[in-house]
Design the sequence.
């Protein structure tokens, strides 16, 4: 069941037009500028610095609680970080260039037949492994970044610099699709969103050889995320920027409202890099819960003490937990499930085909981690941000901590929001996440011709994660 | 270039260039004397390990109104400038506290943090030098009383050879209706006398032959507390809670949490008293004259990490605090 909301005329005009997306992007760019300035020049006290409050509390809460669950990867379409690179590649801001032509330094240096001017991203790196690694790299310093305005400003400046450099050499939004540490997990979790941009009729695409959605046209640019729409099955790499709506001259692409999690129903043929992202995010949620909102302040101090021997121990523990312990335990559960399943029902030919396609049980079972991981991150975000979100009011009036009172809210006292309700929100969210995870584990087993018992170990893994996290929060 | 592109470019330039210029311009404008009518001095209060007050030395002119803008980048600090009547209880990290001061006469005005912001909190001091309108040099201050009397604050610990069997009571001493000799009764002369010396004088006086030792100690307690005004003791109690209790403990027994880690104690001379003084220890405190106690409060040191408070307290506050310390041993 899906409803093409873009068929509503005014919605269609809004989505095809460029001013809305551009306007929101410029607004987020303005916020970004203030974040950088306050990070560099404002008070180092994080809870009174606009940069910390509006990035790690307001934006993070918005991303985790609203944007990703309900609008998928739409944040990426208005993110200020790739915007300058986009504008430089397009040499325009608000209008389409004839043929959707993009410019990069590589246009001059590496022009290739078949390439739209710029150099494509190296084939070897066309996966989200670099994003997984960049997320882990950031995670090592997260306790510092989340509390130090200067560190936040520097890391965001680093992102925009790398994004700009990448856009100078590689076509489209290569940084967003392949490198951005946020984009990786936002993409994976956006599969749960009840919205999607998809083709209306695949048969029309099959007969449409121009592929304007991919290469661009006079009406717009080729997909910034290098998606070929007729093959787009999940939200993972789609920011719903609307570029394909503009460029499809067959009117065969629509913005759909659909059942949540529709992308997850097919658990076959999942990718290992995305599976690892789900596992890594699960581990990170645990570590953040313990370090950032746990009762032991020395852990937070250690995580902030970058470069000290204690921090190296913390970093090693984080990497070992995220890269070995959690994936290792999950792998064991999948193997145990296989053992419980006994001899696979699939005939030899099917198994051989599966191997050829790289169809991995490990990766496919990890589909269950998408709703679970998102639920866990929502639970974490409820604790982490709602407690401190009231800092947004003083920081709005006094962004630098210089004693301003622009909107009369500078002296508003810290008040934890929803403090009594948070456990009552966390428990159902986690339970819904667990139920969906178990359902997906069962679905994976069935889609792999395994009996339901094969899903037991992975379901137990998910239950263990929820119980562990609840224990942490209740403590 | 299309008009829409020009418009978009203009908006983006405003965001990238105009917004920073506007923000910084606003701050520069705010700090102009023309906008505020007074000179503004920014003081950043950091934990002492990171530098304490910055700047920690200010030069003002008598009669000049200055707005102190105090901020903290790390923990909650406080600020007191006793000589100028400034007391700021809380300077929260990321917030700015503004205080206007107008010193009306020249002199040196110490300022200090009043919150236990770290183990070296007591180092967090500064001074405001106020010169006359012509900028004349400040006159030299007279040496403190303990120096004038040649008392060595760092001499071996004082110890009383006689101590009371029960806690002496000033009210009971007053009830005895005994005329005290001038050297004990007169506050100015009593300054150099220790309570145990006073006890000995009174005990040796044949007039008091009929009194028990407890009664004589009650007389001593009365002598020491009779001149302390309740308001002064109340002020001293506040100062004690603010500045002393963290090391000496709220009960005066020397068991305050901050006293355990004072860096000075780790390097102290073995002959020096270990840790913060116990004001309920009769053997120690009854052998100390008021001048000795005042000197220790005033100068600090003694190898124990005791900070100096001479620049922070007025004379009245100092003597009131000495009387308050006596009240740990003497019932009022």
Sequence:
């Amino acid at each position: 069941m899906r409803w093409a909301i873009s068929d509503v005329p005014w919605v269609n005009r809004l989505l095809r037009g460029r001013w809305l997306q551009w306007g929101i992007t410029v607004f987020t760019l303005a916020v970004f500028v203030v974040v950088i300035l306050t990070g560099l020049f404002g008070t180092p006290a994080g809870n009174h610095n606009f940069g910390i409050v509006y990035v790690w509390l307001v934006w993070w809460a918005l991303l985790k609680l609203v944007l990703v669950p309900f609008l998928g990867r739409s944040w990426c379409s208005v993110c200020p970080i790739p915007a300058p690179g986009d504008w430089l590649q397009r040499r325009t801001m608000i209008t389409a260039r004839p043929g959707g032509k993009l410019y990069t330094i590589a246009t001059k240096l590496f022009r290739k037949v078949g390439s739209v001017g710029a150099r494509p991203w190296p084939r070897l790196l066309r996966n989200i492994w670099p994003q997984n690694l960049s997320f882990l790299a950031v995670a090592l310093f997260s306790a510092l970044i989340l509390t130090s305005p200067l560190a936040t400003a520097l890391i965001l400046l680093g992102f925009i610099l790398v994004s700009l450099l990448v856009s100078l050499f590689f076509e489209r939004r290569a940084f967003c699709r392949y490198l951005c540490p946020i984009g990786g997990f936002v993409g994976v979790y956006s599969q749960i969103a009840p919205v999607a941009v998809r083709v209306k009729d695949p048969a029309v695409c099959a007969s449409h050889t121009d592929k304007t959605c991919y290469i661009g046209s006079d009406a717009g640019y080729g997909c910034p995320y290098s998606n070929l729409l007729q093959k787009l099955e999940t939200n993972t790499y789609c920011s719903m920027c609307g570029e394909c709506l503009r460029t499809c001259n067959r009117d065969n692409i629509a913005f759909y409202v659909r059942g949540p999690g529709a992308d997850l129903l097919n658990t076959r043929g999942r990718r290992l890099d995305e599976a690892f992202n789900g596992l890594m995010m699960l581990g990170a949620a645990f570590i953040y819960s313990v370090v950032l909102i746990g009762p032991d302040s020395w852990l937070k101090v250690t995580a902030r003490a970058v470069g000290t021997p204690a921090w190296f121990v913390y970093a090693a523990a984080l990497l070992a937990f995220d890269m070995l312990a959690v994936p290792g335990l999950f792998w064991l559960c999948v193997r145990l499930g296989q053992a419980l399943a006994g001899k696979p029902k699939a005939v030899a030919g099917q198994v051989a085909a599966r191997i050829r396609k790289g169809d991995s049980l490990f990766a496919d079972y990890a589909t269950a981690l998408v709703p679970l991981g998102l639920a866990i991150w929502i639970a974490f975000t409820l604790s982490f941000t709602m407690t401190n979100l009231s800092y947004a009011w003083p920081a709005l009036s006094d962004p630098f901590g210089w004693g301003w009172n622009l909107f009369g809210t500078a002296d508003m006292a810290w008040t934890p929001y929803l403090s009594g309700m948070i456990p009552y929100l966390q428990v159902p969210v986690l339970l819904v996440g667990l139920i969906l995870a178990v359902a997906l584990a069962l679905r994976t087993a069935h889609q792999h011709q395994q009996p339901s018992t094969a899903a037991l170990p992975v379901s137990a893994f998910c239950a263990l994660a929820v119980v562990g996290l609840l224990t942490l929060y209740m403590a | 270039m299309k008009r829409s592109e020009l418009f978009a470019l203009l908006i983006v330039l405003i965001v990238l260039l105009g917004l920073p210029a506007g923000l910084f311009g606003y701050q520069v404008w705010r700090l102009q004397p023309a906008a505020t009518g007074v000179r503004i001095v920014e003081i950043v209060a950091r934990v002492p390990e990171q530098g304490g007050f910055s700047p920690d030395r200010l030069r003002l002119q008598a009669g000049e109104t200055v707005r102190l803008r105090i901020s903290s980048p790390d923990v909650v600090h406080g600020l007191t400038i006793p000589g100028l009547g400034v007391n700021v209880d809380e300077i929260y990290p990321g917030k700015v506290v503004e205080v206007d001061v107008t010193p009306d006469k020249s002199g040196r005005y110490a300022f200090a943090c009043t919150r236990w912001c770290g183990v070296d909190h007591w180092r967090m001091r500064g001074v405001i030098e106020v010169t006359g309108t012509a900028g004349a040099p400040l006159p030299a201050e007279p040496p403190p009383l303990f120096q004038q009397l040649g008392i060595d604050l760092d001499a071996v610990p004082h110890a009383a050879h006689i101590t009371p069997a029960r806690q002496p009571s000033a009210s009971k001493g007053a009830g005895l209706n005994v005329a005290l000799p001038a050297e004990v009764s007169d506050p100015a002369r009593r300054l150099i006398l220790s309570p145990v010396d006073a006890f000995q004088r009174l005990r040796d006086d044949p007039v008091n032959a009929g009194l028990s030792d407890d009664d004589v100690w009650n007389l001593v307690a009365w002598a020491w507390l009779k001149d302390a005004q309740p308001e002064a003791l109340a002020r001293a109690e506040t100062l004690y809670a603010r500045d002393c209790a963290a090391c000496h403990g709220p009960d005066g027994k020397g068991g305050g949490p901050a006293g355990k880690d004072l860096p000075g104690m780790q390097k102290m001379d073995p002959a020096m008293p270990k840790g913060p003084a116990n004001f309920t220890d009769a053997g120690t405190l009854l052998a100390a004259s008021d001048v000795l106690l005042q000197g220790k409060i005033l100068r600090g040191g003694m190898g124990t990490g005791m900070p100096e408070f001479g620049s922070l307290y007025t004379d009245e506050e100092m003597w009131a605090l000495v009387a308050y310390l006596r009240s740990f041993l003497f019932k009022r």
Notes: The longest strand of chain B covers residues 39-45. Chain B touches chain A through 27 residues (CB under 8 Å). Chain B has 13 helices and nine strands. The mean pLDDT of chain B is 85.
